[in-house]
Amino acid sequence: MLYWLTETFNTYDFPGRHLMGYITFRAGISFALALVIALVFGRKIIDRLQRMQVGEVVRNLGLEGQMQKKGTPTMGGVIIIMSILVPCLLIGNLGNIYMILMLLATLWMGTIGFLDDYRKLKYHNKDGLKGKYKVTGQVGLGLVVGITMWLSPSIVMRENQETITEIGNETEIVFSTDEIKSPQTTIPFVKNNNFNYEWLTDWTDNPETNRTLGWLLFVAVVIIVVTAVSNGANLTDGLDGLCAGTSAIIGVALLIMAYLGGNVIYSSYLNIMYIPGTEELVVYAGAFIGALVGFLWYNAFPAQVFMGDTGSLTLGGILAVFAILIRKELLIPLLCLIFFLEDLSVMMQVGYFKYTKKKYGEGRRIFKMTPLHHHFQKAADPGAAVKWNHPVNPIPESKIVVRFWIVGILLAALTFVTLKIR
To answer: Which domain holds residue 287?
Structure first.
């Protein structure tokens, strides 16, 4: 709204009329506004949730301090969603296709998470929305985002390539003057860091068929990424501040990538894909990070509010869609490795338990407990059939969270490093 107003009246001479034209200024305002909203209105929302007796349903899993969390207000993800949407609606460019898709992803996943939390609270159990409905919603979002990127004329890119100048044999990065629609993405360890999904379907003789199959493959990857990251974030939300802090770290990394990839000068200097229009995502990322920092004020150990699936499913969906829009979805396995380890630990545990029960008549486990963060909370049981029974003593919750944050920072740094190793 404010962005539109300043653009409408920019012919008038008034102080600061050009500030809204600077992405860094709007991103800073977006961050600050989201932080203030989360801090000020967060307290009011928590009080409201307490009066409504919207308390977390806790099952006794034998973890230290677990039962003390019973009754803590949940559905705090509403704070995060509101703190993101308000700054974006006020100072974001609502005519930008990338901003529109991010706002859609926020509301889409927020609705699914809200319905899940609502059912848990209504029926006083941990079941919530059936898994098939959540997956259907995630697949639906992936389809919408992938097909929009395929068909929208506003989503284009410019290819980067290295050229050798005749004088001094110096390397120069040159961008194509044509803005093209192509299912290209970024991968590490190769020159120019570009990968085209059409390369996997070039066995067809018809170029048009090849292009269509390449985009269909891209859409399939989008669906997988959205589903995996959203579920991974949901599983990571098990300790105070763990999911919010980890997501904020990933958000900072994606903000930097969006800023660099949306600026033709920096893209040329770093030899990365230039995607016109994605610079607007920096404004969204500013609000995203500000909302999470403000939410952590109340969610840090000991938590005064939990984000619930309203928050965790939304955060995962946001990070997945953001990475896809800036063509960094194939970097997600490294950048969001914590989420994937949480996912993988559950799948390994369930699969191994079923296999050993069928083979030996008794189910055995790999971890003391899953998702992975609970493994470190639980004391070792020498008599239990567990493959990995270390550490012997449980680690305090706050220490686990900080260590996961440190790992998240290292993974973000490593993601950037891999782009320069060619």
So the answer is: 2-158+200-335+397-418
